[in-house]
Amino acid sequence: MFTVNRWWERYGIQMSLVLLAVGGAWTLRQTQGAALTEVYQVISRPFQVGPVKPERLGDARTVELQTRLQEVESQNIKLKELLGYVGQAKVKGAVVAPIIGRSADQWWQQFTLGRGSAQGIKEGDIVNAPGGLVGRIVSVSNNTSRVLLVSDPSSQLGVTISRSRNMGFLRGDSRSRAVVQFFDKVPDVKPGDVIATSPYSQMFPAGLPVGRVESVDMKKTPAPVAVIELSAPMDYLEWVVVSPKTENPK
């Protein structure tokens, strides 16, 4: 008994603190800290700001409604522009489709549309926007479809200089630019020339606007190249027009 009392006098306080710490940790784990949260709320309640005034809530709601209205008006303007574009193009079976998916690491390569086979979209269909060619449909589900952009380095297409009719093939450059390599060693091309899809293109109809020549490197080997500024506003597209692919005359 004397030994126990001596041990308790020496280690009793330390053991009590350890048991208290273990018990507190277990309680926190089981209650997810609810007890501490309640204690904090009781202590801090006198220092908390009173309830939000009704007029502040009303102002916040007004700002929200104004923001929503501006967004709807902006969307309506874009849709009207697209519908006017479709009407001018007079393309049968054209579908106006919203862009619903676009990842940051593939911004210039592909995006997903909120229209699919249920709306008549098929693999190989052509995607345009006001300004020019955007790309083509590479996969389709019932209500979505994926677009490979002409700005993707893997997207190559035949193009023609509208002024001189010199031809080459265009490859994307993962940005709002592309590069055209010409077939002729001395092509008649200069900055400002516009380019369109070639009559010999296998994937796109002839004559679709693609872009404008920004610069030319005539010393490039094995053939001259030109940097092209794409005419479709790839970086901020929200809606596009999908149209059936038509075969070029042989």
Low-confidence stretches: none
Radius of gyration: 33 Å
Spatial sequence of strands, sheet with the most strands: 1-2-5-4-3-12
CATH architecture descriptor of the largest domain: Beta Barrel
Query: What's the end-to-end separation, in Å?
Result: 110 Å
Query: Sheet bearing the most strands, described?
Result: 6 strands, antiparallel, barrel
Helix content bin: 25-40%
Number of domains in the coordinates?
2
Order of helices and strands: HHHEEEEEEEEEEEE
Explain what the structure shows.
- The structure is a single chain.
- With 250 residues, the protein is of the alpha+beta class.
- 31% of the residues lie in helices and 28% in strands.
- It has helices at residues 2-31, 34-44, 54-89; strands at 95-101, 110-113, 126-129, 132-140, 145-149, 156-161, 167-172, 177-182, 194-197, 209-217, 225-230, 239-243.
- Strands 1-2-5-4-3-12 form a 6-stranded antiparallel beta barrel. A 6-stranded antiparallel beta barrel has the order 6-7-8-11-10-9.
- A hairpin with a 4-residue loop joins strand 4 and strand 5.
- The longest helix has 36 residues, at 54-89.
- The protein is elongated.
- The model has no long low-confidence stretch (mean pLDDT 78).
